[in-house]
Amino acid sequence: MSLKAIAKQLGISVTTVSRALNGYDDVSQETRARVEAEAQRRGYRPTLSPAV
């Protein structure tokens, strides 16, 4: 499951999905709830490798 798939399903950008899942304040509560619900429904698990 990828951020891209969640974004496509919800009709929002990959950036918005990422920001919602990472708790950024500039994402509305409604959008965050939709993203979290879709991520949970699809069994999304974040990649744990460090960013380079």
UniProtKB/TrEMBL annotation:
Q: Which organism is it from?
A: Klebsiella pneumoniae subsp. ozaenae
The source's domain of life comes to Bacteria
Question: MF terms per GO, please?
Answer: DNA-binding transcription factor activity; transcription cis-regulatory region binding
Leader sequence residues? none
Residue ranges of domain HTH lacI-type in the record: 1-52
SMART domains reported for this sequence: HTH_LACI
The name of this protein is ThuR
Q: Which PANTHER family match?
A: HTH-TYPE TRANSCRIPTIONAL REGULATOR GALS (PTHR30146:SF109), LACI-RELATED TRANSCRIPTIONAL REPRESSOR (PTHR30146)
Any matching Pfam family: LacI
Q: Which UniProt keywords apply?
A: DNA-binding, Transcription, Transcription regulation
